[in-house]
Amino acid sequence: MEISYSCVGDYLLPDIRLNEPQSGIVKPLGRYGLLRQKHLQRHRSITYSSLLLTERLYHHLRDLDEIAYERRLRGVPEEIILAELVYEYNSTLWAGRRQSASCSFLPRLLYT
């Protein structure tokens, strides 16, 4: 794989381009996917950049959104959905916070 560079001032920067998405595959993200994307951009910029550059960001957000949507269809309360998603993402963090807090702050767990 050959990498090309562009000269910007005194620096050589790599020309990074993402692959074009295949037509028909890209679906709009739902509420939970957009919440996760916004959180990653604001508070987890390294994770966001890593997922974006490896072209796994959309799949990550889409998977999370589909899981949350399926659980909403089953009638699971939103607080429980958010708590479960956080548990799947980071079970150690979830367990520590679950012991030290009430259920009223479970929605904030999505943002950790």
Key features?
7% strand, mainly alpha, 5 helices, 112 residues, two-stranded antiparallel ribbon, elongated, single chain
Short description:
This protein is mainly α and 112 residues long. It is built from five helices and two strands, in the order E-E-H-H-H-H-H. It has one domain.
Helix content: 40-55%
Please, what is the average pLDDT?
75
Question: Can you tell me the number of structural domains?
Answer: 1
Number of strands: 2
Uncertain stretches of 5 or more adjacent residues: 101-109
Distance between the termini: 36 Å
**Number of helices, where a helix is a run of at least 4 consecutive DSSP H or I residues:** 5
Rg over alpha carbons = 18 Å
Strand content: 5-15%
**Order of secondary-structure elements:** EEHHHHH
Strand order of the largest sheet: 1-2
Shape, principal axes of CA atoms: elongated
Q: Largest sheet, if any?
A: 2 strands, antiparallel
Structural class: mainly alpha
